[in-house]
Each structure stands twice: as structure tokens, then as C-alpha cells.
């Protein structure tokens, strides 16, 4: 083993710390971006023409804002919102500082995924709820979110996997985590075993998220 991964064996503590940092970045940013993305996705559905709270100006504004944020490459977004990151966190470097660009980088993507998932909900069910006098809030929670739950879980898993990838990009510019180790040590010092093991750990995370998502989709689909 020492002949295959000699540098990794000397960096056990660093790898444990980097793995924790990656999990921390992924979990916290997923929770915050999940709340923002779900809210924005629901607003896009209900305010669109023909929606239960149809408001074309609001829809157009939200739609364009979502498209704008999704169009900015993440590596550029890191630099563009650095003043905001500095204002909110007090620094632009480090694991906690990376949460701000991670949230801004992923929640518009998730919002669009949520919108697409909720648009697949049978319109007849929505109309039936409206005809029975259900309030907009009741329709959102009891129809859209309940009926669209399996699809929401699927898009959430896709988003979480994409978020893991973004944490590695953030790590490449000083955010810490496995991306930082893979680039600043493995790549920069030509320690290929470090890069390889960092990649394997990231792949294990992705597979774990995917397996959990598949299991969760089966559970909610049978309810």
C-alpha cells in the first residue's frame, strides 16, 4: 500500500479534514440553496400565465433573474460576488466563505429543476382543488408539493451531486476541501496518488448520494 499511495499515507489527517470540509460545504449550502430554490421554483410555477397566482410581470422578472444567475460560470461567480462574501462572512477565503458563492451558484439551477418537476403535476388535480375552494397555499402544499414529491426528490439528488462538483471548484481557489488537496497538493506537486484518492473519495460521495436518492424515490413513490 505504501508503494501505491505513499503521499496519501502521510496525509491521513489532511484527508480527513478535507473530507469533513467538503461534507460541511455541501450540507450547509444544500440546505440554504434548497430553501431558496424551492421557494423560487414554486413562485415561477404559480405566477406564470395560467398559474394559480398568475402575475406576468413578476413571473418575467423571476424568470429572467433565474436565467441570468444560471448563465454565470461558477468560477467567475466566485470573483464577482466576492465583495458580498466579504461583507457577509468577513473574508473571501476559507470553507465558510465558500458557502455564499455555492448557494448563489446552485439555487437558480435547483429552482429551474423544481419548476420543471412541479409543471409535471396533473393540471386536472390543480383545477379540482381550485373548484373545491382550496386556497393558493393549500394547493401549493397539498397538491403541487405532495403530488410532485417523487420528482422533487429526483431533482434534489441531481442538484446535490452537482453541488459536490462545485465544492471541488471552490476548493481550487482556497475554499478547502478535497478540491483544494487535489489541486494545490496533488496536481501542483505532481503527487498523483493524492489527486487519485481525492477523486475516489468524491466519487464515493456521489455514489452514496445517488443510492440514497434512489431509495428515497422508491419510498415516496409508494406512498
Automatic annotation (TrEMBL):
Query: Protein name, please?
Result: Methionine ABC transporter permease
Name the source organism.
Lactiplantibacillus pentosus (Lactobacillus pentosus)
- Location (main, coarse): membrane
Q: Which residues cross the membrane?
A: 23-46, 67-87, 93-111, 152-174, 194-217
Q: Does the keyword Metal-binding apply?
A: no
Is Transport found in the keyword set?
yes
PROSITE patterns per UniProt: ABC_TM1
Q: Which SUPFAM superfamilies match?
A: MetI-like
Keywords from the UniProt entry: Cell membrane, Membrane, Transmembrane, Transmembrane helix, Transport
Where is the protein localized? Answer: Cell membrane
Bilayer topology: Multi-pass membrane protein
Domain ABC transmembrane type-1: where?
19-213
Pfam families under this entry? BPD_transp_1
Q: Which InterPro entries match?
A: AA_ABC_Transporter_Permease, MetI-like, MetI-like_sf
Q: Which family does the similarity line name?
A: Belongs to the binding-protein-dependent transport system permease family.
